[in-house]
Specification:
The complex is a heterodimer of chains A (190) and B (467). Chain A has eight helices and nine strands. Chain A is of the alpha/beta class and 190 residues long. Chain B is globular, with a radius of gyration of 21 Å. The chains are: A alpha/beta (190), B alpha/beta (467).
Chain lengths: 190, 467
């Protein structure tokens, strides 16, 4: 898995609330058998108009080029359980999303792929929303986000997911190391 | 200490309890897989060189991208494209290689994963059930802890039969009052979502309680639990009772003989104990609930069918949604022009849904220009509907009668609406473009959908005798 330590990048702000995984990657692009190449179709309904790149979409503008941090409205990643959503965001070039809340399944899927979903308080979020394109630093070691003006807030990450991100460790390897306990559980149940 | 239904299932499946540093190891009794979210999970196992550990506990079917038209004379299915065909072929290869039972196209057990699970008796009270699909919450109708997972977790279950999980919170949804005639289980859950909000259940598991919930049939309970995820809750539970046991008894994978008696005795201990404490309780009064319809681009944007569309109150997202839908504050959905009607999906494709729709279609015609698809959830549903002559009612009315599958709920198999078309749909999501790029979805019950097909505009089925 991709490691995550510290990331400094300009942001791109998509203020919409309840951005669902159908918006992140529409279902018709799920007919794939690997994880690569989904980025070109990320946010398809917003980024394309009549099949052509829509210059009015903020994600297509020069200011958004190279941004690795997405700042988005409340309840990001709701809807379908498709892990194609974080795969698409990563393939597109994002490494993190900052919102005021993140949907459960999307959060779990993201953390297993080196994509960091962060929740910050409404006031700090408002500041990031107002400063689209500014440079933000996410530090997973210290669990702090720093805005362009130097102000900082702490964020929570599930401790084991954090450990895996910092070490590039696959959660399955840990689960496989629990096999003796799993077998004992099965035997005790019968 | 009194325990909730959730607590009892959770504790019985804890291989290893969580600590500050580590999530708990939760044992999974049953995994269901389908063609869209499993290929990368099988690939992950193969990369690591490990087998599916308990292949007998995983069951596969094909539903998301499968055609709902019949195969040609040579048995070739009319897939929308090669990538859809390839996904199904890959599922066949993977299941064969790993010893997983697959109900493929052509099998009489093939169908929507959340419809066939209960029908086959795979879904049992007290179990933990997962699937790479967020509507796995459906199975909670049987008092099973069932939730959707991502593809990595599908692989985790294949490899270990376990998942790493933190304990979610519990929310009791106390449903008060009785539903009025013509107001259905679909309206009930849409009313709950409208009240709780689409993020209101984040981090939690719901338990639906109250007399109105107890009064629901198993089909109706599945409709309710199905849409738990539309309020952000990964799972929704309903306490198992005699109706639950009567539904399961005699089904293919259900316990038999002495095992059955033992299982029922065990299942009777599952309901939440008197005095058990939930993290939160929410009361929902349904006595005045109207048939519900959505007006925006998420399932929480729902109102009673005759109610005015609310003011977005400065929410840019809600304003965008209204613009996208071509609707205005203060208008009612009633009378809005309809281009398509879809009756199907894991929410509303069971026999009782089709009976409700057929009662409206009987001796009537679908309005000119309204394309109407009726897609049963499984062959069990399809066969039963045909035995009762429902297919003939749909066909005589001018609707299309299709083969089982997810169809227009997710619109990846070629069944879809064109840009700008408005669909009244019995499915679960009205996300932007969900039923085809540029399409507009109004979520509703099978009664409302059928009445809207007949009139060609969004309609109240109670005026056509629907109840």
């Amino acid at each position: 898995m991709l490691e995550f330590h510290q990331l400094t990048s300009k942001t791109v702000v998509v203020p919409n609330t309840n951005i669902d995984t159908d918006i992140i990657i529409p279902a018709r692009f799920l007919k794939v058998t690997d994880k690569k190449g989904l980025g070109v179709n990320a946010f398809y309904a917003w980024r394309y108009k009549d099949g052509a790149v829509d210059p009015d979409c903020i994600l297509n503008q020069d200011a958004a080029k190279g941004a690795e941090i997405l700042v988005a409205g409340d309840n990001f990643g709701c809807g379908s359980s498709r892990e194609h959503a974080p795969w698409a965001l990563l393939d597109y070039g994002f490494r993190a999303v900052i919102s005021t809340s993140i949907a459960d399944i999307f959060r779990g899927n993201s953390l297993k792929n080196g994509f960091l979903p962060l929740e910050v308080d409404a006031a700090f979020h408002q500041k990031l929303m107002a400063q689209g394109g500014s440079e933000v630093t996410i530090d997973l070691d210290t669990q702090k986000v720093t805005a362009a003006d130097g102000s900082t807030v702490s964020f929570e990450v599930e401790p084991f997911a954090r450990y895996c991100l910092l070490n590039g460790m696959d959660q399955l390897d840990f689960l496989l190391s629990q096999m003796d306990d799993i077998k004992a559980f099965e035997e005790a149940r019968i | 200490m009194p325990k909730t239904l959730f607590d009892k299932i959770w504790e019985a499946h804890m291989v290893k309890a969580e600590t500050t540093d580590y999530p708990g190891v939760l044992y999974i009794d049953r995994q269901l897989i389908h063609e869209v979210t499993s290929p990368q999970a099988f690939a992950m196992l193969e990369e690591k060189g490990i087998p599916v550990r308990r292949p007998e506990l995983t069951i596969a079917t094909m539903d998301h991208g499968t055609p709902t038209l019949r195969p040609d004379e040579e048995g070739n299915y009319p897939f929308v494209d090669d990538s859809a065909r390839k996904q199904c072929a890959m599922l066949e290869t993977n299941c064969e290689k790993h010893g997983v039972t697959l109900y493929a196209l052509g099998s009489r057990q093939q169908g929507i994963v959340h419809v066939i699970g209960p029908e086959l008796g795979l879904t049992l009270p007290g179990q933990t059930i997962v699937c790479g699909d967020s509507h796995t919450s459906t199975h909670g109708a049987f008092g099973a802890l069932a939730f959707g997972i991502g593809t990595s977790e599908v692989g985790h279950v294949m490899a270990t039969q376990c998942l790493l999980q933190r304990k979610p919170k519990t929310i009791a949804i106390n449903v008060e009052g009785q539903l009025q005639p013509g107001v259905t289980a679909k309206d009930l859950i849409m009313g709950i979502i409208a009240q709780v909000g689409i993020g209101g259940g984040t981090g939690a598991v719901f338990e639906y309680r109250g007399e109105a919930v107890k009064a629901l049939t198993m089909d109706e309970r599945m409709t309710v639990c199905n849409m738990s995820i539309e309020a952000g809750a990964r799972a929704g539970l309903i306490a198992p009772d005699d109706k639950t046991f009567a539904y399961i008894k005699g089904r293919q994978y259900a316990p038999k003989g002495e095992d059955w008696d033992k299982a029922v005795a065990r299942w009777r201990t599952l309901p939440t104990d008197e005095g058990a404490v939930f993290d939160k309780e929410i009361s929902v009064d349904v006595s005045k609930l109207e048939p519900m319809v959505t007006y925006g681009t998420n399932p929480g944007m729902a109102i009673g069918i005759g109610a005015p569309i609310p003011d977005p109150k400065g929410s840019a997202t809600e304003e965008h949604a209204l613009n996208y839908m071509g609707l205005k504050t203060g208008e009612s959905l009633l009378g809005q022009h309809v281009d398509m009607v879809f009756i199907g999906s894991c929410t509303n494709s069971r026999i009782s849904d089709l009976r409700a729709a057929a009662a409206i279609f009987k001796d009537r015609k679908v309005a000119s220009g309204v394309r109407t698809l009726v897609v049963p959830g499984s062959f069990e549903v399809k066969d039963q509907a045909e035995k009762e002559g429902l297919d003939q009612i749909f066909l005589a009315a001018g609707a299309e009668w299709r083969e089982p599958g997810c169809s227009m709920c997710i619109a990846m198999n070629g069944d879809l609406a064109q840009p700008g078309e408005l669909v009244v749909s019995t499915s679960n999501r009205n996300f932007l473009g969900r039923q085809g790029a540029g399409s507009k979805t109004v979520l509703a019950s099978p009664l409302t959908a059928a009445a809207s097909a007949i009139n060609g505009v969004v309609s109240d089925a109670r005026q056509l005798g629907g109840n």
